[in-house]
Amino acid sequence: MRLTAVDRRAADLGLAPGMALASARAMVPAVKVMAANAPADLRLLEKIADWCDSFTPLVALDAPCGLLLDVTGASHLFDGEQAMLDRLRRALKKQGFAVAGALAGTALAARALARYRDGTVVPPGRDSEAVSTLPVEALDLDPVTVHAFRRAGLKTVGQVAGRRRAELTARFGSGMVFALDTALGRADLPISPRLPLPDYRAERRFAEPVTDEKTMLATLNLLAGRLGKNLEERGEGARALQAVFFRADGSIRRLAVQTGAPTREPALIERLFREKLDALADPLDPGFGFDLIRLEADRTEPCRDEAAALGSETVPQKEIRALVDRLTARFGAHRVLSFEPRDTHIPENAFAAVPAQYARAGRLGWEKMRSAGEAPCRPLRLLAPEPVSLIGGEAFRWRHVTHRIRKLEGPERIAMEWWRDAAPDRDYYRAEDENGRRFWLYREQGLHWFLHGVFA
User: Fold this and answer.
1) CA dist list (Å): 88 to 102, 127, 149, 270
2) Which SS3 state, helix, strand or coil, does residue 205 take?
3) Same domain, residue pair 241 and 145
4) What is the model's pTM?
5) What is the pLDDT of residues 25-75, one digit of tens each?
6) I need a surface site. Which of 80, 244, 251, 378 has the fewest CB within 10 A?
7) If 0-12 CB within 10 Å is exposed, 13-18 middle and 19+ buried, where does residue 90 land?
């Protein structure tokens, strides 16, 4: 058993990660230990990464205890790079974390400086100079390679960089040389953000955290207007939007809504988020308030302006889409469904229930199976086929109830699709019992009877 992490007091006493537990207890008999929980540590690191999203959307995990942030083009929002780094470190320390950070031109250089020169901000083009004085351990190499450097008298990154590239490649491989060049700023390895970047985003920071829901909705309306202008310039509309609420204590809450058609109308977007807030089982708790609210358009599509006159066909269609969007925001997409026809004559496969937001007018239409004044040919309620018992050809028993047949019409043969299913053909009958109730029955292979639906 080995130590995976130590607090500041243990480090002052000479304990370090990787040390055997027996050795640690020999050095400090009163040491207190607890079992490591890597999954819980990862979840905590992901929560911190979510919070860091308020500084930049390009956040990558550097497990087990690090984060890499690409702040290119974002530092001016925080009064410069040094002010941004100091603000981030202070905020994390205020939340109870021990944190060290640095800012450099490459991720590996920033990681090395964070571990050995906390608080450093390297000017552009000065990575090599800043990293050269660090110990070789800053390159995060395997222990065998570090030991080999130490035996050769190469104790700093600058000393290693002074050796010939061919010599280092032959002895330690191209991977080590690339890591060295990256740390010195001669090469770059982009980070892989843990969350996909939204197509469009707008945000608002508050000097004082806000707690009023009315203010939050008004802010979303304002941000939707900003997004709408950007979308309009590119002829696009949002299909999926996400509101991110950053609480002052570091907690984050995300709310997502979708639309049935591309939109950039602030009033509609605000209404959808209002429905979402009203439907939350766990209400949005502002705590000490939200200091940042962000609106993201995660998915966009081309959008045409609908300059439809009053009374045209597009007006009711637009109203129906708006109703579907509001119902979906409140109840969920899986509860607001629409039926679409399918190109098959098998009754149970002739339609599909899809989320109404994604329903589209297809090439297929609903087949008209009866003329005016004719009785329905298909039942109003279709059931999964249930076996029934035929009694002397004059009655049938279904769900422990006997129904005497007064009228019977059929058969209507429906053949199964032999290229998909080897099921036998069916002979369908419309039957009416003595109480006027009508059923849809079919016979399979001339032996077994099933009830497939009821007309009323």
Assistant:
1) 11, 21, 35, 31
2) strand
3) no
4) 0.70
5) 999 999 999 999 989 999 999 999 999 998 988 999 998 889 999 998 888
6) 80
7) exposed
